[in-house]
Amino acid sequence: MASSESPPSSPTSRCVDCTKVCEQLQLLQLDCKRHNACGNCVKIRGRAQPSDLLRCQVCGRDSFAATEVCKEVADQDRGVWIYVDDSNIWIAAKKLAGQVKHFKTGEDHRVRIEIGKLTDVVADGRPVIQGFLYGSEPPPVDSVWEKIREKGWEVDRQKRHPITGKEKKVDTKLVADVTERACTTPRVERTTIIFITGDADAIPAIEKVLKYEGWQVEVYMWSHALSSELKKLPERRSNVKIFKLDHFLDRVTFTNMKFDSTNKKLIPQVKAFGVVLSMAPGAFNKHKVPRKRWCEQLESIAQWPFQYYWVERDGEPTNDLVLVFKEDTTAGAFDMPQFLDILEEEHPLPYVESAQTFLHYSQSKSGLCQFAFDAVGRYSWDDVCEGSYTEALMCLVKQKFHGNLLCIAQSSVIEKGNDTLTDAVISIIARMEQVAVISTQVKKLLFSIRTKVEEIQ
After folding, report:
1. DSSP symbols for 404-428
2. How far from the centroid of its chain's Cα atoms is residue 65's Cα?
3. For residues 324 and 329, what is the distance between their CA atoms, to the nearest angstrom?
4. pLDDT tens for residues 95-139?
5. Which of helix, strand or coil describes residue 131?
6. Beta-carbon-side half-sphere exposure of residue 420 (alpha carbons within 13 Å)
7. Cα distance between residue 312 and residue 205, in whole Å
8. Environment class of residue 231 by beta-carbon count within 10 Å: exposed (0-12), middle (13-18) or buried (19+)?
9. Strand runs (DSSP E) across 77-152, as ranges?
């Protein structure tokens, strides 16, 4: 009579835990060599009883040595810990972006790190147990840091040195936190710690983590910013892996193209390095956002990063686009004359009807009111309308912008059609001549302007 015990057979295509039929490649053979479990059920086993990962509950066999593949599956399901040196990756990203775009400057100061997308790249599908971001005060964009907090990240900010401006205690705090995590996490919960830094100062933290069995370490950074010590670490530590982020630059960063024209502290920057483009009506979309391709063309001509804002009138943007080219500590000041010559002679940019420096624009009739607003920060186009030139100019005088006032007056009074502005200048001159304390140079300029006004009259 035949025996009731079934002979050993080839692995079946059904999971013994969930009973689902799966493709052979999606199954892992259990220790009994007869039954299989699908990937999802192996993950569940790993969370519940990691040591019994491959034990067959049907056959009741006692052999349950898990393979390295199964351990990796379980580890991935338990997630990763991420520690980010914000200044390190941000500064290096700006330099890399500047190199990619062939800027004459040493970096692209507009670049910002998108922490959410950076997390997606380094986690690579694994759950993130907790993220930690370390940086210095003041942060480059505080609102961005607040959004990071809202996503459950812990943000640690340290003050910079008051003289050198260098970070203090950031590396020390990161090492301390990682060490505490490494030694206090139970053995069965130890998975992977990810460092996003290229600084050799992270090596002590990595070494301390590896003293505790069960941890894996991954380091992510731009290739040019990886220290030589970090690059050599995998040669003597098999559970350390180094990954380069260069191919993910566009994915994990964004470019802050908007210039904050409401910030009074930035006004000198606009005056010194501002260019105004008069754009054709209807250029770009209704939201006045320059197209990416157009911005790339402009960058290739200037070979310099820029930010922009639109001059507004009555709360609505006009067709005057202001470009601001920030001075660079490495390359110096932006060559505006050369840039303007290229735009005028070659006309390489679509939609651009004319271009001029911001100072020339601000001294013209069209830019007077906006200049008063930028310089004083009080008036808008609604306040400084055609009937309020006198008030706007007087405001400049009170704020001791005498040179700017006289420049505006001298270039504007000769416009015979501008009667309202001429009347305003005459009124200003009369008031200023009544002031007892006035320099000889200003008196001479006032006299020359008054002479021109009389000629017009």
Report:
1. HHHHHHHHHTT-TT-HHHHHHHHHH
2. 47
3. 16
4. 999 999 999 998 999 999 988 889 889 998 888 888 888 876 544
5. strand
6. 11
7. 52
8. middle
9. 80-85, 111-113, 128-137
